Amino acid sequence: MKKSLRPYELLTLALLLSACSITYELLMANTLAIMTGSYIWWQSITIGVYIGGLGVGSSLAGKSQDPLKELFWVEIILSSLGGLSVFLLYLLHGGYHSSDFLFYIQNDYSSPVYQQYNLLLKSVFIFFVQALTFFIGLLSGFEIPLVMRIFKQEKAEEMDHKVLGFNYIGTLFGSVCFAFFLIPKVNVLAISIIVGLVNIFVCYYLFARGVIKISPKKSLALFFTSFLLFFLGSNINKVEQYYLKTFYLFKSFATLPGTRPIHFFQKIDQFNPVERLKSKYQFIDIYQPDPFDKSEKVMAIDMNFQFSSQNEQYYHEAFVHIPLSMIQVNPKRVLVLGGGDGLLIREILKHSEIENIVHVELDEFVLDVAKNRKFFKELNRSSLEDPRVESIVGDAFYFLRNNKKKFDAIFIDFPYPNSYNLARLYSIEFYRFVFQSLEANGFVVLDAPIHDKRSEIPTHEYGQVVVDNVFREEDEQSNSILLSTAYFAGFPQLFPYKVNHESFLLMTKEGVALHYDIDQKNLSYYERITQVDLREVMRLKYPYKIDPSLINSLFRPKLLRNSNF
Amino acid sequence: MGNLRFSVLCFFAVAVACCSILYELLLAQTLATTMGNTTLRYNITIGLYIASMGVGALCYDRLLSLFSSKRSEIELFIKIECLLAFFGLCAPFLVLIFDSFFQSFNESSFLSYQSTLAQSLIFVFNHLLIVLIGVLSGLELPLLMKLASNLREKSETKILMYDYFGTLIGAVSFPILLVPYIHLFTMAAIISTINLLVAFLFAIFTDVKRRDLVAVIFFLVFINGIYLVFHQNVNEFVIERFYFMEGTF
Fold first, then answer.
1. Which pLDDT band, with edges at 50, 70 and 90, does A564 fall under?
2. Could you tell me which of A501, A504, A496 has the C-alpha nearest to residue A457?
3. Under a CB-based contact definition with an 8 Å cutoff, are residues B151 and B5 in contact?
4. Which one of A291, A367, A392, B115 has the lowest number of neighbouring Cβ atoms within 10 Å?
């Protein structure tokens, strides 16, 4: 009569299903975190909603009489929802972004109407995303109790804890696979489809083993879901390009005179593709923000704007030459942390008195790209190949902790701290290690988000719109966290400055003189920055407090405010 | 089983699951301070934690006989909670202390911090801590399921659900409510104390006769209490001495 599954088959099933289950969760959490730029909140809330779904699912699963049939249907729905999960995320996020921007350009950015609309859009986005996560969790929650009930039906002895054990091992297997094999090497869309296919495979297996009745309804569902996944699978690149183009290019397109936003979707195929490079640690996107100007290219890391080929000189010149002209001592040994694109080093190399530059970069891929790709080589003028430069691949924190030598100047070019991983690079422990690696008359300059009281004019530079311009209490708090941490790490002299919307922090040890007549200095280093820009440096006010309770420590992290999502 | 009611058991399930995940997340965050690369540390810690729970669940029967002569689930539960509370409290400190032990060696010595030997020992030690807490946590759920089935028929999946909720509460509150406001070491003591409180309540509800077990609970609570009173000074001392190696450079 009806065949039944052997225990080892059921246990393998438990293992496989839990591996798929954890992969969906990790995928959702990871993709969402990158999309919105706020790692901690999204990772935890997604885990929470997912586990909540698991809990509800497991409590609902105890009732059925035919657990195998129920398992079949659970897997069908799960493979479609899960397989489509990343696609749906792209759709939701792309839609959110374009609608938000459309409403923005019709209204003033600071108007309460826009703020309300933005809040509504955000809530809708969050609701649908978390609903998706919840349902995937819910369906996954059915799996383990169903397997346990199948065992009970076969009258297998105390198998509950064996099922649990295999469930745990499957979860481990899934997370290891995800972290070490899938994420570094495979496109995220592809990962969701692959896992969806594994779920569908389980259904085919149940059919093939003859343990469930093959009905027309089931066959149709199976066929339809498989078709859906294969169709999506063959269009991965297209879908990804549509999403990336919408995210990066919609804004600059919609603000061009004489165009209507709807034309964007009609012309989307005509734009130059967004080039996406993937390293072990991050996504690097290179795109052309203006559809009609081929010269300008922008690089983004994990969807965060890094630099534009047309404007990056303002940033890098301000980073390097302003501190060097404010502090009279000629540095010989310089340390650069981060800045794997080589642009910072290009500016540093202009100073002939510098004999040695030690450069620490976490991502070997970025170094590789910066040394070998034409776009980068032209921009950084092969700075990384210079004999004075010594590149080290590694974690900056670890490097500094074990470093015994001292440097005359330290340049720190890190991404803004939106995750605990990055926040440790702005911690008091890190700055203490920096202090220990700095000569007595040396300086440290870092790129950090410091908010000032001048109201910023919203611009459409770099293909981005500066929305945030009203100085709020959180801004003072954020400034205070950064500056208090630096102060208590041992740096008594703190000089924040800003050029062209880019803010920096210059700091020195006790007794180092700062020379403020920068605009009278030799301007030969500045190819872009003007006298006017330099005069601005002294003019701005950055409200902050020095308070020990605001220290960002590894053991009690405090994040700086980052306006992204 | 004394006065233990099913709903109370569910509450305990939530609490111990919450504490277990919190111990591991705390350990992951502490390892990130000495080994770097936070994301990798979290992934490895969660992965190893889940695997060790699997080992704990699979070896449930064998480990049961190892821990207690009579198959008394109640006493075993209390013993496991005490062990967890103890190791959960000590783990972050031990990580720092063990790491600093190698910092004190000369660069040329075979045990210098940078040597493969030292790095391997540190690696193994840190991960053993994760596995230890994981295996102990892995024993909790089958135990709870057994206790649940003694109280009420076919209630395993209900307990599983409450276990999930406990993990959920822990996983969400850790980065949002706990880390930004409480020092990592202090957090370890707080969680350990809550864990011990649960063990104590459990002992009361089940009318446990073993006075020595209750005494152990009190003793551990006492240690936690002493630490919490002086927590700021202790934290500062430990970090200065074992992380920055002040006084030894």
1. very low
2. A501
3. yes
4. A392
Q: How many CA atoms lie within 13 A of A303 on its CB side?
A: 23
Place of tokens 């990066």: A248
pLDDT in tens, A8-45: 888 899 999 999 998 998 888 888 888 877 667 777 78
Average pLDDT, chain A: 85
- Which residues lie below 8 Å from residue A443, measured CB to CB, with a gap of 6+? A323, A327, A409, A410, A506, A507, A508, A512
CA–CA distance from A333 to each of A355, A357, A505, B82 (Å)?
6, 6, 20, 54
How far apart, in Å, are the Cα atoms of A488 and each of A224, A358, A484, A485, A494? 62, 26, 6, 5, 11
Residue from A377, A321, A332 nearest A358 by CA: A332
**3-class DSSP assignment, residue A478:** helix
Q: State how beta strands A438-447 and A283-287 pair.
A: unpaired
Listed residue (B128, B142, B134, B141) closest to B49, CA to CA: B134
Of A165, A402, A555, the CB nearest to B183: A555
- Cβ–Cβ below 8 Å for A175 and B47: yes
Residues of B in contact with A64 (CB under 8 A): none
3-class SS of residue B17: helix
Q: How many residues does chain B have?
A: 249
Q: pLDDT tens, A536-548?
A: 777 777 888 999 9
pTM of the predicted protein model: 0.83
What's the rounded Cα separation, in Å, for the pair A7 and A376?
Answer: 57
Q: What is the ipTM of this complex?
A: 0.81
Nearest chain B alpha carbon to A398: B36
Contact A255, A458 (CB under 8 A): no
Predicted confidence (pLDDT) at residue B249 exceeds the cutoff of 50? no
Measured between its terminal Cα atoms, the distance across chain A in Å is 58
Q: List CB contacts (< 8 A) between B51 and chain A.
A: 168-169, 172
In chain B, helix, strand, coil percent, each to 5?
Answer: 80, 0, 20
The residue length of chain A stands at: 565
Return the pLDDT at A311.
85
In whole angstroms, give the CA distance from residue B159 to residue B180.
Answer: 31
3-state secondary structure of A246: helix
d(CA A137, CA A251): 35
Say yes or no to pLDDT of A465 above 60: no
- Give the residue from A378, A353, A380, B183 showing the smallest Cα distance to A361: A380
Measure CB to CB from residue A169 to each of B54, B114, B145 and give the nearest one. B54
Q: A359 forms bridges with which residues in the sheet?
A: A336, A391
Q: Give B72-76 contacts, CB < 8 A, sequence gap 24+.
A: B73/B143, B73/B146, B73/B147, B73/B150, B74/B1, B74/B147, B74/B202, B74/B206, B74/B208, B75/B208, B75/B210, B75/B213, B76/B139, B76/B143
Which tens digit of pLDDT belongs to each residue from A257-303? Answer: 777 777 888 888 888 889 998 888 888 999 998 877 788 899 988 88
Specify burial of residue A7 (Cβ count, 10 A radius: 0-12, 13-18, 19+).
middle
Instruction: Show the tokens assigned to A94.
Output: 């792309």
The yes-or-no verdict on residue B179 having pLDDT over 50 is yes
**CB burial readout A262-294, b (16+ within 10 A) else e:** eebeeeeeebeebebbbbebbbbbbbbbbbeee
For B8, counting Cβ atoms within 10 Å of its Cβ (0-12 exposed, 13-18 middle, 19+ buried), the class is middle
- Among A59, A179, A559, select the one facing B158 at the smallest CB separation: A59
Instruction: Find chain A residues with C-beta within 8 A of B181's C-beta.
Output: 556
CA distance to A16, A30, B115, per residue, from B241 (Å): 47, 37, 22
Q: How far is residue A551 CA from its own chain's centroid?
A: 24
- Choose, out of A168, A175, A419, A553, the residue to mutate when testing the contact with B (most B CBs < 10 Å): A168
**Strand (E) or helix (H) holding A506:** strand A502-508
